[in-house]
Automatic annotation (TrEMBL):
Protein localization: Nucleus
Family the UniProt entry places it in: Belongs to the histone deacetylase family.
GO molecular function: histone deacetylase activity, hydrolytic mechanism
EC numbers on record: 3.5.1.98
Keyword Cell membrane found: no
Source organism of this protein record: Euphydryas editha (Edith's checkerspot)
CDD domains in UniProt: HDAC_classIV
Listed name of the protein: Histone deacetylase 11
Functional note: Responsible for the deacetylation of lysine residues on the N-terminal part of the core histones (H2A, H2B, H3 and H4). Histone deacetylation gives a tag for epigenetic repression and plays an important role in transcriptional regulation, cell cycle progression and developmental events. Histone deacetylases act via the formation of large multiprotein complexes.
Subunit record text: Interacts with HDAC6.
Length: 336
C-alpha cells in the first residue's frame, strides 16, 4: 500500500487540496508569470460561493523521497539540492542565489505536497468515479529531468501507483494544457498500456520531438485557435481515442493556459470555452463509466483561478460530479 493513499470520510468530496500547495519565495515568485497563489484562490472562490466548506476538502500527504523513487532517479532528486538546478526548472533565475534550505521549503515542499495530492486523487477517482487535485499536472517533468515549472513527475507517479497498488492495467492521459506534455511522454515511451492524447500549440515550448513518439493521438494546433475549432477537434479526437482504447482510468491534465491572452499559451479560448471543455471530458467519462482524475496544470493569468472554480461548480450543476460512491475497479492479476 502506498503511504500516500489515505481513506476519506463518506461526506468528503474527492477534492484534494492543502493550504501549503502555494508557493512563496519571499516575493521572488513575482519574477515568474505563474500565479503562485492560484490554488488558494480556486478554493477561496469555491468557499465564497458556498460550494464547499474547508472540512469537505481532502488533505494529501507530501511525497517523500521513498515515494518519489518509484519514478525518479536518485541522481535527479540529488540535483534538486542545488539551487541553480531548481532555478532552471522553476524558470526564476534569482532562485539560484537563495540557500537551498529556503528553496526546499518555499518551492519544492509545496510541489511534493501537490505530487502527493495527484497520487491520492488517482486512488480516490477509482473509488468515487472522479477526483480533482486542485494542483499538480507537472507534465514537463520525467524520471530524470524537470523543466517548465515542473519539478516532480506527478502524472507518471499517479499511474505507476495505480498499477502497483490497485492493479490498474490500462490508463489514458488526455492532456489539454496549451503545451506538449513531454515529461510523462518520455516516461511512457514504448508502454502500450498507457494511451496518450495530447492537444497543444505546436509553436511553443517544449517542441520535444523524441517525446512526441509516445503520443498515440496527437493534435497539433496553431496560434490564436478559437473555441469552435478547438471544441470540434477535441470532440472528434477524444471520441475516436475511446473507441481505440478502453482505459481503467482517465488522467485529465486540464491546463487553462489555452485562455485568450495567456502570456505563454498563445491561444484564444474563451472562459466559457474552458468550462465547456471540462464539461465534455467529464461527460464522456461518465457516459462510459470511466473514472476520471483532473489536475489543474498550467494557467498563467490571475483570472484563471475563478475560471477553474466556475468550471468545478458547473460540473456539479450538470450532475457530472457529486458525492455518490462508485464501485472500485476489480482487482486484475496482470500489470505492466
Amino acid at each position: 500500500m502506498s503511504s500516500l493513499y489515505i481513506d476519506i470520510r463518506d461526506d468528503q468530496w474527492p477534492l484534494v487540496y492543502d493550504e501549503k500547495y502555494n508557493v512563496s519565495f519571499c516575493g521572488f515568485e513575482k519574477f515568474h508569470v505563474f500565479d503562485a497563489k492560484k490554488w488558494r484562490n480556486i478554493i477561496q472562490y469555491l468557499i465564497e460561493a458556498d460550494f464547499i466548506s474547508p472540512e469537505c476538502l481532502v488533505k494529501p500527504l507530501e511525497a517523500k523521497e521513498s515515494e518519489l523513487l518509484v519514478v525518479h532517479t536518485k541522481k535527479y532528486l540529488k540535483s534538486l539540492k542545488w539551487s541553480g538546478k531548481v532555478a532552471m526548472i522553476a524558470e526564476v533565475p534569482i532562485v539560484a542565489c537563495l540557500p537551498n534550505i529556503l528553496v526546499q521549503r518555499a518551492y519544492l515542499k509545496p510541489m511534493r505536497l501537490q505530487t502527493g495530492g495527484s497520487v491520492l486523487a488517482g486512488k480516490l477517482a477509482l473509488e468515487r468515479g472522479w477526483a480533482i487535485n486542485v494542483g499538480g499536472g507537472f507534465h514537463h517533468c520525467s524520471a530524470g529531468r524537470g523543466g517548465g515549472f515542473c519539478a516532480y513527475a506527478d502524472i507518471t507517479l499517479l499511474i505507476k501507483n495505480l498499477v502497483i497498488h490497485r492493479n490498474v492495467q490500462n490508463a489514458m492521459i488526455v492532456d489539454l494544457d496549451a503545451h506538449q506534455g513531454n515529461g510523462y511522454q518520455r516516461d511512457f515511451l514504448g508502454v502500450p498500456e498507457v494511451y496518450i492524447m495530447d492537444m497543444y500549440n505546436r509553436h511553443i515550448y517544449p517542441k520535444d520531438e523524441e517525446a512526441k513518439r509516445a503520443i498515440r493521438r496527437k493534435i497539433e494546433l496553431g496560434n490564436k485557435v478559437e473555441d469552435l475549432e478547438y471544441m470540434l477537434k477535441l470532440r472528434k479526437n477524444l471520441k475516436a481515442a475511446l473507441k481505440e482504447f478502453k482505459p481503467d482510468i482517465l488522467v485529465y491534465n486540464a491546463g487553462t493556459d489555452i485562455l485568450d491572452s495567456d502570456p505563454l499559451g498563445h491561444m484564444r479560448i474563451s472562459e466559457v470555452g474552458i468550462i465547456k471543455r471540462d464539461e465534455f471530458v467529464f461527460e464522456i467519462c461518465k457516459e462510459r463509466e470511466i473514472p476520471v482524475v483532473m489536475l489543474t496544470s498550467g494557467g498563467y493569468l490571475k483570472k484563471t483561478a475563478r475560471i477553474i472554480a466556475d468550471s468545478i461548480m458547473n460540473l456539479k450543476n450538470k450532475g457530472l460530479i457529486g458525492c455518490e460512491l462508485k464501485n472500485k475497479i476489480e482487482n486484475k492479476p496482470e500489470r505492466f
